[in-house]
User: Fold this.
Amino acid sequence: MSSVTAAPDTALLRETATRRTFAIISHPDAGKTTLTEKFLLYAGAVHEAGAVKSRKVARATTSDWMELERQRGISISSTVLHFGYEGWRFNLLDTPGHADFSEDTYRTLCAADAAVMVLDLAKGLEPQTLKLFRVCRDRGLPIVTFVNKCDRPGLPPLGILDEIRERIGLDPVPVTWPVADGADFAGIVDRRTGELVRFSRADHGATVAAEEREPLATADPRGCPPDRWRAAVEELELLDLDQGELDRDAFLAGRQTPVFFGSALANFGVRLLLRGFAELAPAPGPQAVEGGPVAPARELDEPFSALVFKVQANMDPRHRDRVAFLRVCSGRFSRGMTAVHGRTGRPLQLKYAHQLFAQDRETVDAAVPGDIVGVVNATGLLVGDTLYDGKPVAFPPIPTFAPERFTVARNRDSSRYKQFRRGLAQLDEEGVVHVLRRPETGDQEPILAGVGQLQFEVATYRMAAEFGCEVTLVGTPWRLARVIDAAHAPALRGQRDSVVVTDREGRVLVLFTSPYALRWAAEDHPEVRFAELGVARREA
Ligand code: G4P
Assistant:
């Protein structure tokens, strides 16, 4: 194992400075998939737009449980896409769009340094965007806003800025500005140069088109109704008077959001967004570690360390294996290296490491801070685990959500009991659902806990598809959970309107039918502390 070197590893720092590790957050249908596809087009990662969509379809047809995504028209899984553009290396973390998967999204956002928030010009801030925004804010992630679908009639763009300011408290600073919208859409103005980038409907965004720029002051409004053209010019004047300058520090501190306009579908304004994002977004920096003031951060050029932020099994039915996703936090990762697994203190050889491009796997030989590596079949790795080389380090645990829904899982075929147990243990480890056990029924009829009904549907689906177990879900009266000290478990058994259970980590939980039941228990047992489970709370 290497030791801390005195001289900074400038090559590593230089390479890390090119990394942009980020996520796109949006309400379903705002255009996240389309935008991702266009990013990849610029990166040369795909050669023709449509590839991501067809990937979506291909994925749904080749992967068993992703069939559920297709049926429900939702995105459940998170993948990581890697691409380069003009010297930058982007690691794009794909987050599931559905509200029921906020826990998975939260874990994924723990690995990101920044986010792009996509809004539909016609809809503004939608509920799921707001929820995801709050998660980003809690994580301190700087956010760049992309207002999409300018080729369609939309809301007044000044109104969108007001909404951002009033509803999420960010100060929006437009970098580009649209001239009209819908059928009148003439293009966007780059406020940094005062130039108009003209929109053309001829190209449907399937290829990387050159930008036609001209000074707005002398540009011909051709095709755009004069009143709409004038309105855009006046808005721009107003912005110049009214709007504060874009201040990168204010953006990094989560006070400002740079705003870009465009049309992902028409591949318009996307290059400006990608370049603007790359210039503004932070490169990976030192990571805060546990241990307080003595060891406040792991510096980038310290020996290798990484955080496991996601574990997923059976992503690809051709391989049927388990992938642990690591974000490299410091030092260099090299395939075949041995690192210490923080939780167990055991050495672990990182032999099978991949970068994933949807279903396709590419072996990773080296990675630097900010990069995401998928380690295959490292069975002991769990979400929140730290790996390190050299000086021991631990990253703060990834917060979990307090479960709000509970259901009993019943195995329909007793001859498949082993598979039933194994399957649920796997889903519990991945965090698809939390599996709770009552002493009376043990592994036979565990209680599944989660924040959304869809989590249970995914669990049942995967139990059948991957473990050959048909599971029936039975409703329960439980509505909230509290953690207690194990010593108090016997006293709480038999308490009205509650049940005592244990989770995978051996914690003792009490489930209650209502807040009143919790209050009665607290009154009957003043000596017991009923702690909330999970640090993060799902937004209502
Ligand atoms: P999502 O991943 O955020 O859920 O959204 P997605 O990109 O799948 O886009 C949702 C719909 O919005 C798609 O239409 C897509 O073509 C359309 N769209 C995305 N960006 C733009 C844009 O800039 N302008 C316009 N006019 N439409 C846009 P769909 O009909 O659901 O799918 P498809 O038939 O086009 O594939």
